Amino acid sequence: MSALRPLFVVAGIGRAAGTGAAAARRFSKEGYSVALIARGEDSLNALSDEIKKGGGEAAPYCIPSYSADDITSAFTSISAQFPNSHYALRAALFNVGYAVWKPFLEVTAAEVQESLSTSVAAAFAFSRSAILKFKENKLDAENPKRGTLIFTGATASTRGNKMTSSFSSGKFGARALSQSLAKEFGKDGIHVAHAIIDGQIMTGAALERSRDQPLSGLSPESIAQAYMYLANQEKSAWTWELDLRPAQEQW
Length: 251
Known about the structure:
- 41% of the residues lie in helices and 18% in strands.
- By secondary structure, the protein is α/β, with parallel strands linked by helices.
- Helix 1 (19-29) links the parallel strand 1 and strand 2 (33-38).
- This is NAD-P-binding protein.
- InterPro entries: NAD(P)-bd_dom_sf (IPR036291), SDR_fam (IPR002347).
């Protein structure tokens, strides 16, 4: 029987230029098939087509929201398109957040709810679907771990600030979830990791503003490389939390 092809699922690709998209490209180059989950249909299709034109295998799954039902539905579609007879989910990335940068008294109840729904409730749903798929994988000499679940965090995951009361609340929750899952499922051969992205990610307007200082932020490709490192770690030395920042970042 031929070996099952590894599958990588990523939720959150933005405009196909940031961390989620870079991770999708990197995992594809390493031989993974890629399932892309996001709300922006145009970006999803563009990234999927790009990966396929480069010789990889990818499929887009556009969802109307990051609700538990929509994420579960996306995983159901992924399981149908990438069946266990030919594929095994080996890595999953939750790269979703809802940023609100406002003084506390200007934050609305709706913004707080959206932040918690996106960063915490959606993370629960994504994690549940990924872990259930990981548990279907057998442990053997060739595959000593069932899979790797990675969360993209931020400076706000560990430190609140004047304008981040809502954003930090959601990010703190996702970090706590990742730590809880790492402790609960490590014994089952499931590696859970949380990455603190401590600095500006160099995409879009940030990249334009920093043309004279190309090392002033984090490269999405460098973050993706770190995620691949996490996925390839041996069971004897797993990382739960990894913090990434540019060399000149003040911290």
